[in-house]
Specification:
The complex is a heterodimer of chains A (about 500) and B (about 220).
Chain A lengths: L1 H26 L1 H16 L22 H23 L4 H6 L3 H5 L5 H35 L5 H28 L4 H20 L8 H10 L4 E3 L4 E3 L15 H47 L4 H8 L6 H14 L2 H15 L4 H9 L1 H7 L3 H4 L3 H5 L7 H24 L3 H21 L1 H4 L1 H17 L16 H18 L6
Chain B lengths: L2 E9 L5 E10 L2 E6 L6 H8 L5 E8 L2 E2 L4 H6 L1 E4 L11 H11 L4 H14 L15 H14 L4 E5 L7 H14 L4 E5 L3 H6 L3 E6 L2 E4 L4
Parallel strand pairs in B: 3-8, 3-9, 6-7, 7-8
Antiparallel strand pairs in B: 1-2, 1-4, 4-5, 9-10
Helix pairs in contact in B: 3-4, 3-5, 4-5
The chains are: A mainly alpha (about 500), B alpha/beta (about 220).
Chain lengths: ~500, ~220
């Protein structure tokens, strides 16, 4: 009898949570922006034949494009974007609950945590699948307009095979990150590290390839040319003939492992969620209490902050530097570890693009580590918070983020021509400043930084079209700069908290 | 039906003792908890639900220990926290429906119940509007509907009238008095007179002591 009641309750909470969370996701202000971004990016990555640029290049010559090959290119792009956007932007779980102070309501419900977690997972999946369907319709319509024909059925199958695992993985990672983020800092870093590692793995190892690179690799390997392979985009030094139509042929041997991977990822995600959630929820109260206790303790001003307060609120440069350093660097040991690793990879001859991209994730790691609840822990940091809002200290914070990035990115930057290196440098400074000034990173660290991450990531790895070339690595065209500026303004407006607008 | 405190000691997280309740039993009806700011009223309410550690003693609802049998306790109790908040993208009706479903209530029953209670707190016209459009007073009304709709034996309400205009406050107080006939309503409020008029038992936390029959 009790067993049946428990099952009924899980069932009820599962269905209710799925419905409610889906409604919340669909009605979010950012949903439309997210969807539009996705469609615009996918469409932008499939340029028309007469465009002055192309994603797929052979010695500067635009390749023979068809609706089928374009669909595959779009699938790869969609896979990458889905992995990043949905994996990191699904800010709809426990992080949101805490921010909106809903966690208290959930903590006092006789609710099945398993039903809650599963419901959120299903809602994520349903939402992501819905968005993918809409994006697919938009892409195929674009292709129809450009090529005058719909892609073939086989190309569609391949499209689904490429996109599905990426989306599912994104959702599962999103769930795990969401479960892990509000917890201990080291778990939070592990969550973020998982995402970065997955992205790196995508490019490096075929067994974890979830966005179709293995297929492209095989094709190019068979075609007797030596391409430089980046994530989803291909550049080649040779001028040998190459039939792009071959891309549209789905590989039976790929489809089965891909679907198996889909099932495996889903199972791991569900199991992980089910196992982790009750444990984490149980411990979270104790942890919150400890943090609150530390907060109480931190209200006693340190000598540094007392000195600052006595000085009428004007912090000395030294004080601010110490605070900024402690806040963004010392408290992020894993970020430092990643930084050092990236630096070594760069030194040991990794490709400039790879090294640079890793470096660009450093702010992500750092900001992921600096959530407001953590800031309360150290007395001097808490007391000096007002000082960090002024232009001077902001500049110091910017320096603290930028200088290690510059150091680690040096090998990558040296690989570029002077003009490219300079524009890249300016781009990195601009993005760092943007991250700080929008301030949204404090409330939505994952959201704020992942938006920048997508742009930087795409830019560093790929020969992007002018509209996407924020860093100016590939095109220093006034049009590109204008588009980039508009994008920056739009995203800033979208992300900036109301009080700062 | 009773809520019983036995040797309960409440401390702030820094270790400062806030309140001690040697022995107290609350029966059906409204019990208004009063006290000056920082006396520990909210802490006591939160401790009942395990949101704040109990330094010593026990709290039980009809012999169900709030800590040892927490899930069972929560099935019979509901808490409306201070600064009640909702999912801004859900409508008031959807929000109430969702939380009823989380308690295991069947879909149709939950929908009827939610509609009934949103009407009883005077939000029928705003039932299908997103809660992001609600004023503070409307949110508090929704919070009261959330607490009362569950039918729990024990309703603990932390400052439910904050931001509610006097007229609406009187209506909600009447509603509370009506439902309190067969429930234990423990309410933390500064509106002492209104509670007295509705026959509430007054309790004050004064210098760390639980004083029954006194309003702070």
């Amino acid at each position: 009898m009790m067993m049946r009641a428990a099952v009924t309750q899980i069932q009820s909470s599962l269905i209710a949570t799925t419905g409610a969370e889906l409604a919340v996701r669909a009605r979010q202000r950012l949903s439309l922006l997210r969807l539009l971004t996705l469609i615009v990016l996918c469409a932008a990555m499939v340029p028309p034949p007469e465009a002055g640029y192309a994603i797929l290049h052979i010695s500067g010559r635009a390749p023979l494009m068809s609706a089928d090959t374009a669909l595959q290119a779009a699938a790869v792009v969609l896979g990458i974007i889905a992995l990043i956007v949905f994996g990191l932007l699904l800010d709809v779980g426990r992080i949101r609950d805490q921010r909106q102070q809903l966690h208290v309501l959930f903590a006092v419900q006789p609710t099945s945590i398993r039903g809650l977690v599963l419901g959120r997972l299903f809602a994520n999946l349903a939402y992501a699948c819905g968005v993918v369907v809409i994006a697919t319709v938009a892409i195929t319509t674009t292709l129809l307009a450009r090529f005058g024909t719909f892609p073939g059925f086989e190309a569609f199958i391949l499209f689904v095979c490429i996109v599905s695992p990426a989306v599912v993985t994104a959702v599962v990672i999103g769930l795990l990150v969401d479960l892990l983020l509000p917890e201990q800092p080291w778990l939070r870093v592990v969550g973020v590290f998982m995402v970065v590692l997955t992205l790196a793995m995508l490019a490096l190892f075929s067994p974890l390839d979830m966005i179709g690179i293995t297929v492209l690799k095989q094709l190019i390997g068979n075609s007797d040319i030596a391409p430089q392979l980046a994530i989803g985009f291909i550049k080649s030094d040779t001028n040998t003939g190459f039939s792009w139509l071959e891309f549209a042929v789905p590989f039976q041997q790929v489809i089965v492992p891909r679907l198996a991977l889909l099932a495996a990822v889903l199972s791991i995600g569900i199991l992980g969620g089910l196992l982790l959630a009750p444990m984490l929820v149980k411990k979270s109260n104790q942890r919150n209490k400890r943090q609150l206790a530390l907060t109480q303790e931190s209200l006693k001003p340190s000598s540094e902050s007392a000195e600052m307060i006595a000085g009428g609120g004007h912090a000395s440069l030294r004080t601010v530097f110490i605070i900024a350093f402690a806040r963004f660097v010392l408290r992020s040991k894993f970020a430092m570890l990643l930084l050092a690793t990236a630096f070594l990879i760069g030194l040991l001859g990794g490709s400039p693009g790879f090294s640079l991209t890793l470096i660009l994730f450093v702010p992500f790691i750092v900001f992921a580590n600096t959530q407001p609840d953590e800031l309360r822990v150290a007395a001097s940091i808490e007391q000096c918070e007002p000082a960090l809002s002024r232009p001077g200290p902001q500049f110091m914070v910017l320096s603290v983020i930028f200088l290690p990035m510059l150091l680690a990115a040096a090998p990558a930057l040296l690989g570029f021509e002077l003009q490219q290196a300079m524009t890249a440098l300016c781009g990195v400074i601009a993005i760092s400043a943007w991250l700080i000034w929008t301030h949204r990173v404090h409330d939505f660290p994952v959201l704020g930084v992942s938006v920048a991450g997508i742009i930087l990531y795409a830019n560093a790895f790929n020969e992007v079209p002018p509209a996407m070339d924020v860093l100016g690595l590939w095109h220093s065209h006034p049009f590109a700069l204008a588009i980039s500026a508009c994008m920056a303004v739009a995203t800033t407006l979208a992300l900036l908290p109301k009080k700062l607008r | 039906m009773h809520l019983k405190f036995t040797g309960a000691v409440f401390e702030a997280l820094c270790g400062r003792r806030l309140c001690t309740i040697e022995e107290a039993t609350l029966g059906t009806g409204i019990t208004a908890l009063t006290g000056h700011n920082g006396a520990g009223k909210s802490t006591v309410l939160r401790a009942i639900f395990g949101l704040h550690p109990l330094a010593a003693g026990t709290i039980s609802l009809d012999a169900i220990d709030s800590r040892k049998h927490r899930q069972h306790f929560l099935a019979h109790a509901v808490f409306q926290p201070q600064n009640f908040s909702t999912y801004p993208d859900l409508t008031g009706l959807e929000f109430l429906h969702y939380f009823l479903r989380l308690r295991g209530v069947r879909r149709k029953e939950a929908m009827n119940h939610a509609a009934l209670w949103i009407d009883r707190v005077g939000l029928a016209e705003a039932a299908n509007r997103r809660t992001s459009d609600y004023s503070q007073g409307m949110l508090q009304r929704l919070g009261l509907a959330y607490a009362l709709q569950s039918g729990a034996k024990l309703c603990v309400l932390d400052e439910p009238f904050a931001g509610v205009d006097p007229k609406a406050r009187a209506q909600l107080s009447d509603l509370l008095a009506e439902v309190a006939k067969d429930r234990i309503i423990l309410i933390c409020t500064h509106h002492v007179e209104e509670m007295k008029e509705r026959g509430a038992t007054m309790v004050a936390i004064n210098h760390g002591a639980w004083q029954a029959g006194v309003a702070a």
